[in-house]
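Thread: Newbie trying to understand structure tokens

Hi all, I'm a second-year student working on a class project, and my supervisor (Dr. K.) asked me to get a predicted structure for one chain before our next meeting. I've only ever worked with sequences, so writing a 3D structure as a token string is new to me. If someone could post the tokens and maybe explain what I'm looking at, I'd be very grateful. Here's the chain:
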Amino acid sequence: MNNSRQNGILRTTEPKPAKARAMPMINSDELFKGAREVAGPITSATIATVVIFIPLAFVGGIIGEMFIPFAITITFALIASLMVALMVIPPLTSFPVSGKAGIPKKDPWYQRAYTFTLKWSLKHQAATLNSVKGRNTQH
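---
Reply by user tm_fold:
Sure, no problem. This is what the structure looks like when written as tokens:
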């Protein structure tokens, strides 16, 4: 699920305040302080997504039989993702990373292609819009 990946990404990219990011070794107090800062938004986003699936439990008939397992699966997956993001990822980020994992010197080819295409599209907005103008017509 997209939301479960976002929980993990938020927890690994945002748990450290700016002061901790500048230091080579992460202070565990600052790590958990940063984790507490993003716990609220992650929890509220997950709860909002779970609440969307609650009405599916009350759908009747054959459609309800199809959607109830789906709603239950999504709900439990999101709750499990939230628990991992809140309880597992913060302690794991305090482990030191080996020196081999560094910033790559050169972007991968797909990143360079995407960057080039994005910059070109933003410079030539009219051409970009005209290239997709007639493609959405119904036959």
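A couple of things are worth pointing out once you decode it. Residues 8 and 85 are 5 Å apart (CA to CA). Residues 2-96 form a domain with the Multidrug efflux transporter AcrB transmembrane fold fold (CATH 1.20.1640.10). Feel free to ask follow-ups in this thread.
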